[in-house]
Specification:
The complex is a heterodimer. Helices cover 48% and strands 13% of the residues of chain A. Chain A is of the alpha+beta class. In chain A, helix 6 packs across helix 8. The longest helix of chain A has 29 residues. Chain A is globular and about 70 Å long. By secondary structure, chain B is α+β, with helices and mostly antiparallel strands. Chain B has 11 helices and 8 strands. In chain B, the strands form 3 sheets. In chain B, strands 1-2-3-6 form a 4-stranded mixed β-sheet. In chain B, strands 4-5 form a two-stranded antiparallel sheet. In chain B, helix 4 runs antiparallel to helix 7, helix 7 packs antiparallel against helix 8 and helix 8 runs antiparallel to helix 9. The longest helix of chain B is centred in the middle third of the chain and has 30 residues. Chain B is globular, with a radius of gyration of 20 Å. The model of chain B has no long low-confidence stretch (mean pLDDT 94). Classes of the chains: A alpha+beta, B alpha+beta. Chains A and B meet through helix 5, helix 9, helix 10, helix 11 and helix 13 of A and helix 6, helix 7, helix 8, helix 10 and helix 11 of B.
Chain lengths: 374, 328
């Protein structure tokens, strides 16, 4: 990691300490599901959003390592980053790569200031892993597009300003990847209904979104009509390559280390668990940095990112199971209720770690293709 | 010289002097004379020796691809161990003996890979390191067929003392074994993917079956993670100490079983046969997994370090584990 990027670490730590001071552990365990628009704006003001975007659009003009450092700090503290997360991670790079000059000037500076929040319209009731089967349709009108259909499991839709939606603009579902396009949908447009969906932990971070004859302007199209599949895959590579696929349970690890230290445990099984988690995290971090280095060279590390995401989410999922087992195998040891709640929350939500951003089975299919088997 | 320029001739040398037939013969008891004299003549044994002392002055991190290549070729002699031993001897200003050198610590009772093919050892005992001839030691076979590993018993640490300011040998041995595991694992992945592409069942190559593809994807993940962990161990250098070595061997040893098992699952019955080369690599993975401490041993060592520290996991990793080797 270049030294000038590493130097960002101290800068972001101050802001994080302020934002997380009153957050109990189980709120911090929400990681990138925690919504705090003020905090996102403060990060924007400090120049810590859009780090990889050109300065001419309000970005930091930095490389992927700068973003890695800031993201690592935010996640390892469990800072509430949901508001800007998707815009910073994938919508902004997508707009930079495929957008017109007008679209860039319109959206990117606001994303960098933490003033425009985005969600991703991919899944539909009948389209999950089989994304090419989407049925939401946009038809050309005299002045733009007429949008009808439904998205579901859309993270952060209730708090977002815009959705980048994958929709069919020609042909039918039988045409698969052909005839798909991406549209930027202003979620304040008439005809849009957003219904939050409560998850099994009581949170409502995702939603269903209905489009009923929504009229969009011509410039809602991002990129090229009919090229939505290619664009969405480029976008998913941004989504899969970040360190957030390693660190979802990391605040629990740190709290557990503090817990066993307080309890004065020095036995072999405790040390072995601490060591195993540390060794796996260190290896995953190095792998994630290697993917970042490929991004910095301008490559699109699709297979590598899939590999790190699958291994990383396996780790994130194992941690709450290991730690809860450890805690409950010491039934006489008092535990703080926030530690219990955090372990419990993460154990319940952990299955989603290998669903969001592409399921484990899809990622392994991508890896198998990389091995030449498909 | 970049890594590729360093590796290619070494890899070619090993392809020539250490094909599976040679590894197999040495495992079965043949001497390593020709293999060793060619490697010695190549100059690679002094790769880590500083240039003023007549070596190439490479760092452990530079040499990581060489260590992995040795595993990839199932080299039946302690070549990587000898490279490190020669660097330590040079640092202590002691002449380097000809022949393969093991890295041992006297407290360890586990079988030592390559014991049968080595002539010398650096032995850590009483806070010092001694250069000893293996003639002084009593080797006891493990009783398994086809292995260079043996139990080693020492009468007493005799021989030239190198000094007390040198790094501990067990972590160094663990890093080299992790790199060997990474190399052999890589070879197993190549063999298994190629087999899955050729073996036809149900009218198509088994590699077209999703169930097999998913297994091979997981195997590939473990191979890449093992390589990265070994790189972490090597990058920390000769003086990297306990932390990076623990990461390397914990991850490599834990992955070794899964990698070997998947290779065998995909190969089916033919992989179990002695005649098939698969066993040359899968048996090494299982032996190297245990040698110098298994995954739980190294997890405990790393865990003790971790529990003694009150900083965050990210800071602990940054400060103690993901290190580049400091310039010497």
């Amino acid at each position: 990691v270049p030294a000038h990027d590493e130097a960002l670490r101290g800068e972001v730590r101050g802001l994080i300490a302020e934002a997380t001071a009153d957050l109990p552990l189980d709120r911090r365990a929400r990681s990138w599901q925690g919504f705090d628009a003020d905090f996102s704006r403060r990060l924007g003001k400090a120049g810590l959003l859009g780090l990889t975007l050109p300065q001419s659009y309000g970005g930091g003009g930095r490389g992927p390592f700068a973003r890695f450092i800031v993201v690592e700090e935010l996640l390892s503290a469990g800072a509430p980053v949901a508001a800007h997360w998707i815009a910073d991670r994938q919508s902004a790079p997508l707009i930079l790569k495929f957008g017109t000059e007008d679209q860039r000037r319109f959206y990117l500076p606001r994303i960098c200031r933490g003033e425009a929040f985005f969600c991703i319209g991919m899944s539909e009731p009948g389209s999950g892993s089989d994304l090419a089967s989407v049925r939401t349709r946009a038809e050309r009108t005299e002045h733009g597009w007429l949008l009808n259909g439904q998205k579901i499991w859309t993270t952060n839709a209730p708090h977002s300003d815009y959705m980048i939606a994958l929709v069919r603009t020609s042909g039918t579902a039988a045409d698969r990847q052909a005839g798909l396009s991406q549209l930027i949908v202003d979620l304040k447009a008439p005809g849009i209904t957003i219904r939050p969906i409560v998850d099994l932990t009581g949170d409502a971070h995702f939603a269903e979104v209905f489009f009923d004859n929504v009229e969009l302007a011509d410039d809602a199209l991002i990129g090229t009509e009919g090229q939505g599949w290619t664009q969405v895959n480029a976008e998913l590579a941004f989504e899969r390559s970040g360190p957030e696929r390693i660190y979802s349970s990391i605040v629990l690890v740190d709290a557990w280390i503090a817990h066993v230290a307080r309890a004065g445990r020095l036995d072999g099984a405790t040390a072995a668990l601490a060591g195993r988690m540390t060794a796996e995290a260190a290896t995953l971090r190095a792998m994630s940095l290697a993917v970042t280095a490929l991004l910095a060279k301008g490559e699109g590390p699709v297979v590598e990112a899939s590999l790190v995401k699958d291994l990383g989410t396996s780790f994130e999922q194992a941690v709450p199971a290991w730690i809860s087992d450890d805690l409950a195998s010491h039934p006489e040891e008092p535990i703080a209720s926030e530690l219990y709640r955090a372990a419990s929350y993460l154990g319940q939500i952990a299955p989603s770690f290998s669903l969001r951003g592409g399921t484990r089975e899809i990622l392994r299919g991508i890896i198998a293709r990389g091995l030449g088997l498909r | 010289m970049n890594r590729e320029e360093l590796l290619v001739p070494f890899d070619r040398l090993l392809s020539d002097v250490c094909p599976p037939s040679v590894a197999r013969a040495v495992d079965a008891g043949d001497p390593i004379d020709r293999l060793w004299s060619e490697i010695e003549a190549s100059g690679y044994l002094d790769a880590l020796v500083p240039e003023p002392a007549g070596g190439a002055g490479l760092s452990m991190g530079d040499a990581a691809p060489l260590f992995m290549a040795l595993g990839r070729h199932a080299a039946p002699a302690p070549v990587a161990e000898t490279m490190v031993a020669r660097a330590l001897l040079a640092r202590a200003g002691i002449d380097r003996p000809a022949g393969p050198i093991l890295l041992l610590d006297r407290q360890q009772a586990l079988p030592v890979p390559f014991a049968r093919t080595a002539s010398h050892a650096l032995v850590e005992a009483d806070d010092n390191i001694h250069l000893v001839s293996l003639n002084q030691a009593q080797l006891t076979a493990t009783g398994e067929p086809g292995t260079t590993a043996a139990f080693i018993n020492w009468p007493a640490p005799e021989g030239r003392a190198l000094g007390t300011d040198l790094p501990r040998l067990r972590p160094l041995s663990a890093v080299l074994l992790a790199a060997a595991i990474a190399g052999a694992a890589d070879r197993l992945l190549d063999m298994t993917v190629a087999f899955a592409d050729e073996r036809v069942q149900f009218g198509k190559p088994i590699g077209r079956q999703q169930a097999v593809q998913q297994q091979l994807a997981v195997m590939a993940e473990k191979v890449v993670a093992t390589r990265m962990a070994a790189e972490i161990g090597c990058a920390a250098g000769l003086d990297g100490g306990l932390g990076p070595a623990s990461v390397a061997k914990q991850v490599a040893s834990a992955a070794a079983v899964i990698i070997a098992d998947t290779a065998h699952a995909v190969h089916g019955a033919i992989g179990i046969s002695e005649e098939h080369d698969l066993q040359l690599f899968s048996r090494r993975l299982r032996s190297w997994r245990l040698a110098s401490g298994s995954e739980t041993y190294w997890a405990e060592r790393l865990g003790q370090m971790r529990l003694a520290s009150d900083i965050s996991t990210i800071d602990f990793i940054r400060k103690n584990l993901n290190l580049a080797e400091p310039a010497r």
